[in-house]
Amino acid sequence: MQAAIITGELSGDKIGADLAASLRNAMPEISLWGIGSDAMRAANVELVADSSTWGAISITEALRKVPALLTTVAPLIRKQVLARRPDVVVLVDFGAFNVRLAAFCKQHGISTAYYVPPGCWKRDGFASDTLIKNSDLILTPFEWSLERYQSRGVAAEFVGHPLLDRPGPSLSREQFADELGLDFDKPIIGLLPGSRAHEINHLVPVMLEAARLLASTEPGAQFVIGVAPSISADQMCRFLTTNKDLRDRFTEIWHELTQEAEKKIIRPLSRTAGSITRTRQTLLATNGGFIVPEDALRPTQFRQYRAPGQSGLPPVVLAKNLATEVMTYCDALVCCSGTVTLEAAVTGTPMIIVYRGSKVMEFEYKLRGLHRKIPFIGLPNIVLNRKAVPELIQEQASPQAIAQHISVLLRDITARQCMKSDFKEIRSLLGVPGASDRAARAIIDLASATRHTE
Predict the structure, then answer these.
(1) pLDDT score of 444
(2) What is the pTM assigned to this prediction?
(3) N or C: which end of the chain has fewer CB within 10 A?
(4) Which residues of 129-158 are buried (b: 16+ CB within 10 A; e: fewer)?
């Protein structure tokens, strides 16, 4: 049996990888190929295109990416589909690309299963006619969207959310803190700026200034930036500094955790970051042991939010491929809006949700009236259908507002307990573990039925 798995963003890549593992467990001889990135590649899926840079969250960003994908990648994948004729094509989210591919597959008599269809997270709304008529099976992780599909006559199943199947941290809190040179007895604040380049550009400066403010009001506070797998060492260093010598050293030393090394960080920061913390130097340090002095940071990005006379960026560690540990062991999180907010809720760590984009994106947000039409942008709030997690959008996501909300989460025990209780409710609404296995069985059944009718 042969299946193609087509993903488009980091979250979809992880879901596709989990599905691939479940498909192989259920049918070891299955042949898997498709589009994805690091996670799918690690799951031994043959990739015909890499989707690591495809992420877009607004129409403005999508207009920059989708046309090129439709004129370059789409013809490639259509050619592959016709040449290989898989028993089933599994489409994972990424509607701007995958809904069109579903129509192409339908036209050529190839079965499609849409896993995590676009917009399935919405509490109300409708499923597009194109999606419905061209999908042979829809697998949704949100139970409230099931009736939406079934009422249109398409086969659909609620399989639960694959986030519940993700493995927990491979390090204890003490090990995590020790490896990054932190004090596990003092507050650790996680900064998660997202996986897209434009999110890094707009959110990291604001988060760093918020860290500066928090350091003055929360004695002993420590900060960790979780760097997404899709952001390379070179990208991060070019964003941080214009200094070529620093950039070359950064790229050389930056520690990339492999699957085999996930249980043990090979090059710990303990000695380096610990000594820096004691001397109160201003810095950013990578989990490869490299230090970026504050005076080497890009001034236009990192100083635009600072009030006159302010100085002293606190120690901040850049940690790549440690997202689970960051979300689990930090005392509070500042999360970019996206799937990571739901991941964080599953871990139970109190958080706030922030989003900032370009001026053009802000204009689009207001022009489309999204601030009035969409009650929430954060998935935890959407799942609960109420505002349980603070949301700071565009100009609201100021360093001062971020610092204020995080201070509340650190100091107010009642606020923390209330949020943790809400997160337990979220876990219950996402179903029970085993989503990837249930999806795999449904996909295999669809492919088998298709083969028997040929």
Answers:
(1) 97
(2) 0.87
(3) C
(4) eebbebbbbbbbbbebbbebbeebebebbb
Among 282, 288, 48, 73, residue whose Cα is nearest residue 179: 288
Which residues sit opposite 317 in a β-bridge? Answer: 224, 285
Mean pLDDT of 427-436: 96
User: ∠ CA 148-154-158 to the nearest 5 degrees?
Assistant: 60
Angle at the Cα of 212 (from 209 to 215), degrees rounded to 5?
150
Q: Is 428 exposed, middle or buried (0-12, 13-18, 19+ CB in 10 A)?
A: exposed
| Count of other CB atoms within 10 angstroms of residue 311 | 9
**387: how many CB neighbours lie within 10 A of its CB?**
13
Question: Which residues on adjacent β-strands are paired with residue 283?
Answer: 293
CA dist list (Å): 126 to 230, 254, 384, 439: 32, 45, 19, 22
Residues in CB range of 185: below 8 A, 6 or more apart? none
**Average pLDDT value for the chain:** 85
Question: Given this model, what pLDDT does residue 409 score?
Answer: 97
Q: Which of the 8 DSSP states describes residue 297?
A: B
Place of tokens 């129509």: 103
